[in-house]
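Acetylglutamate kinase, pasting as requested.
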Amino acid sequence: MAQTIVIKIGGHATNQLSPEFFAQLHAWHDAGKQILIVHGGGPQISSWSKKLGLTVKKINGIRVTDSETLKVTQAVLLGLVQPMLCQKVTASDLPALGLNATGQPIIYGDYLNQKLFGEVGQLTDINQDYIAAALKTHIGVMAPLAVNPTGHLLNVNGDVAAAGIARMLGAEEFILLTDVPGVMVKDHVLSSLSKQKATHMFKEKLITAGMQPKIQAAFDALQNGVEKVTITNKLQSAGTTLLKSQLVG
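Structure tokens follow.
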């Protein structure tokens, strides 16, 4: 699916989508590109968890998810964020289809580290035929909830899930749309980033905890076939670009 573009939209960014965002979707759609949006919902999940008296805890940017938090995560992603995104895409005269694990399993996974993270999964496979058929006629809007071998739902970090899906689909481009204009260092946007430089910046704590999973996901995608990854807050902005050639150096 070389004509596929995978866009990961963070929870903050879902509320900040501009007319230019939908204009770019139109341009890609008209050009015959297949578009898959993988959405998060972190801020919304944290907000509802706090309202319900649940503890909000993250380790290295990964949400620790007990059984009650998983219920909140499912309710927020599938009951609030995904319908809102589908509605916005449809309101822009584009065909949208919500893809989630409550009907046809789409993302398959298994526990990342149940003792440490609880009901958190890692991607093991995707229902590629189903996704490919959906993207032929619609812009897919997918929640990062995986089904494990026993049919149990697992919460998967949206950045990691989107990177794995982009890799498995053989996407030509993977875009991480976030609430900042790229990878920031001292209020400056890095136009590019090599893996070596990123590793150094992790060690020096120059990159925020929330950005680390995004960068790690980006390099995972590049190492496994995706040609280009962009981290930005606007589809029309250059942001931080990561290319296969930047895996070394």
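Note for the archive: The chain has a mean pLDDT of 91.
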